[in-house]
Amino acid sequence: MASAPRILIVEDEEPLVLLLRYNLEAEGYSVDSVSRGDEAEISLRESVPDLLVLDWMLPGLSGIELCRRLRQREETKALPVILLTARGEESERVRGLATGADDYVVKPFSVPELVARVAALLRRAAPNRVATTLEAGDLVVDRATHRVRRAGRDLHLGPTEYRLLEYLMERPGRVFNRAQLLDGVWGMDTEIDERTVDVHVGRLRKALNGARERDPIRTVRGAGYSFDETFGRA
Ligand code: CA
Asked: 82 and 60 in one domain?
């Protein structure tokens, strides 16, 4: 697996920085933040992250001006930038994109939406960064073809079981409760009963595990499910 993508947040609203940092770190990103536009410019001369979350209105130097300057430098010409704008500025969104931001969100925005845009933009910017196969022990998931093999044999998973496996395997060892899995695998606005998760975990296990094979999915009593991070080691 590639190392964690690095994200720099440039935002002067401290509570928003904390919220974004918390959620992006939970997704496995490495996060830095600065609160001023001019500080960001200095920081970006020292090191270039994989993605920039940039507020429009900043002390020191505006997000728009910083973005314009970044596009003029070779090192940051292609740096993926998501611009944060306030609602009143929305009519000027075209100006934001013309200045070279790759995407923008309007405040107040939903954090899962921003996190999804970060992931999408990183995928677009560096397709190689997202591993095309996930492997653990004798289990191999080919994300391009959605083929799943265990010990060389093809497994037949339904689409939900496939997404569930991919989701858990991308985050080995992390325990997800049923509500989190519904959000992550089924989508945010589902009103599906949480017991549905158990049904699909059951189907996934049945598809994955032959007789005497070790179960890579761990049930954590009272908490939820995780992909066993020790699976395939010893
Ligand atoms: Ca601001």
From this structure: yes
Measure 38 CA to ligand 1 centroid, in angstroms: 13
Give residue-wise pLDDT tens across range 66-76. Answer: 999 999 998 89
Residues in the chain with pLDDT < 50? 1
Q: Are 201 and 152 in contact (CB under 8 A)?
A: no
Q: Which domain holds residue 214?
A: 133-227
123/150 same-domain check = no
Expressed in angstroms and rounded, the spacing between residue 79 Cα and the centre of ligand 1 is: 21
- Asked, for residue 1, whether it belongs to a domain, the answer is no
- Report how far ligand 1's centroid is from the alpha carbon of 108 (Å): 12
The pTM score is 0.56
Q: Strand runs (DSSP E) across the chain, as ranges?
A: 6-10, 30-34, 51-55, 81-85, 103-106, 133-136, 139-142, 147-150, 153-155, 217-220, 224-227
217 Cα to the center of ligand 1, angstroms: 43
Residue 219 lies in a domain: yes
125, 10: one domain = yes
pLDDT of residue 184: 83
